[in-house]
Amino acid sequence: MSEQSRTLPPEALDAWAAALRERFGLAPEDVPVSLILDLARDVAVGVARPAAPFSAFVAGLVAGRNGGSPADIASAVAAITALAGDWEHEA
Fold first, then answer.
1. Rounded Cα distance, 47 and 15, in Å
2. What is the chain's alpha carbon radius of gyration, rounded to the nearest angstrom?
3. What is this structure's pTM?
4. Which H/E stretch holds residue 26?
5. Separation CA 42–CA 26 (nearest Å)
6. What is the residue-averaged pLDDT of the chain?
């Protein structure tokens, strides 16, 4: 797979998010794309690139266990972002 074919233009990301919402009966506020992308960026920079998707999964898991509301999502993302910002793992 070429690098170009792995790049997703913004309109394709919107279409993918819409497909996920439709498939799982989610509202737009249930799928905060920019919030999750920001989380992935912050974790990738503050911790490591492979930690980004894993951290997004954990944010969803934590938010779901706490009720799954948009506020629960934002709270889980904020906690993980703060942890990544303070991360100083010694090699």
1. 29
2. 14
3. 0.82
4. none
5. 25
6. 90
